[in-house]
Design a protein that fits this description.
- By secondary structure, the protein is an alpha+beta fold.
- Helix content is 31%, strand content 25%.
- It has ten helices and 15 strands.
- It has a five-stranded mixed β-sheet, sandwiched between helices.
- Helix 3 crosses helix 4 and helix 7 packs parallel to helix 8.
- The longest helix has 23 residues.
- The protein is globular, with a radius of gyration of 18 Å.
- The structure holds acetyl coenzyme *A.
- Acetyl coenzyme *A binds next to helix 2, helix 6 and helix 7.
Length: 325
């Protein structure tokens, strides 16, 4: 049984916009194709000197409680930063966040579960607090996908955007917010979406892209729809709930068509879905907190709502959580 809940949310996206019209000038594509195949209308792109830790710091500055109140970071005892695009290989983004805010006596660790990173980080924060080892954990998911996007590849460059989201997870034994979790991995699908690193081969296959994102979009699409809809079914069974018990579904915002397919397969009305893909593109692990923020701002997401979060991405790996907002 959980003893933790999310007590505050903050987000940030860079000012610079990259429109579909701008992409038409870079590659052979069209606004109509992008909107029809992905639902994406625009995305925010970091400035040349703006990196993931900068976006994360702004998201933490924007943290607000349920009544819009600012929150203190004094007693934070662990910082977990989720990112696939850290400023440096090391030191980590979580250490940069600690330095900026001067949070004392806090551990700091980065986690990389690609686009599923925010749900994994929340799951771990819940576990750490429920175990009694920690009391107040700052979870931050930030990405500058534009820095690793190949703007000559029309099948990837239309998708990605930059942004960050932060959540405070606190000890709350009387009002626990985490109800159930599910996760799974298919490492054999690693080749379907990757960015090369120290090694330039995977399972005997040479890697392309020279440090930029490479993907077989169709394979990722099919895997995500199949896996996430099966995961939702298991998660609901496990919690002895049905889709009617869910107030909001917040999947990773990769592609609007993908969200529509998952909803259709799972019997979740699209109207119960919060997403950030239309206005922000695929911001990897930042996409779920950005979608939650959209729901808060629109007055849709309210305290006590039951929310189904579902992260999925390269790995291939996925993590779904049932929470109370
Ligand atoms: N503009 C115009 N045409 C395009 C574009 C474009 N931007 N991109 C691809 N096409 C063309 C292709 O070349 C292909 O043409 P062909 O039939 O002549 O070969 C045609 O459109 C269809 O291509 P598909 O790849 O089948 O198109 P699809 O409808 O699947 O859409 C997309 C492609 C948008 C990439 C989709 O597959 C997708 O979103 N997949 C999921 C990607 C994803 O979520 N990745 C997340 C990983 S991020 C991470 O984990 C770090």
């Amino acid at each position: 049984k959980s003893a933790a809940r999310i007590t505050a949310l903050g987000t940030y996206v860079p000012e610079r916009l990259l429109l579909n019209d701008d992409l038409e000038k870079l590659v052979d594509t069209s606004d109509a194709w992008i909107v029809q195949r992905t639902g994406i209308q625009e995305r925010h792109i970091a400035a040349d000197d703006e990196f993931t830790s900068h976006l994360c710091v702004r998201a933490v500055e924007n943290l607000r409680g349920p009544g819009g109140e600012t929150v203190g970071l004094e007693d934070v005892d662990l910082i977990i930063a989720s990112t696939t695009t850290p400023d440096y290989s090391f030191p980590t983004v979580s250490c940069r966040i600690q330095k900026h805010f001067g949070i004392e006596d806090a551990g700091a660790v980065d986690l990389n579960a690609t686009c599923a990173g925010f749900t994994y980080a929340l799951h771990m924060a819940n576990g750490m607090i429920t175990s009694g080892l920690h009391r107040k954990i700052l979870v931050v998911a930030g990405e500058t996908m534009s820095k690793i996007t190949d703007y000559t590849d029309r099948s990837t460059c239309i998708l990605f955007g930059d942004g960050a989201g932060a959540a405070l997870v606190e000890y709350a034994p009387d009002q626990p917010g985490f109800e159930s979790a599910i996760m799974g991995t298919q490492g054999s699908g690693g080749i379907h979406v990757y960015r090369s690193g120290l090694s330039a081969e995977m399972d005997g296959e040479p890697l392309a892209g020279e440090g930029r994102i490479v993907q077989n979009g169709r394979e990722v699409f099919k895997w995500a729809v199949r896996t996430v809809s099966a995961g939702i079914e298991k998660l609901l069974d496990q919690a002895q709930l049905t889709v009617d018990d869910i107030d909001w579904f917040v999947p990773h915002s990769a592609n609007l068509r993908m969200i529509e397919s998952i909803c259709e397969k799972s019997g979740i009305p699209l109207a119960k879905t919060l997403q950030s893909v239309t206005e922000m593109g695929n911001t990897s692990s930042a996409s779920i907190p950005l979608a939650l923020q959209a729901g808060v701002r629109a007055g849709q997401l309210n305290p006590g709502d039951r929310v189904l979060l579902y992260g999925f991405g390269s790995g291939l790996t996925h993590c779904g959580l049932l929470i109370r907002w």
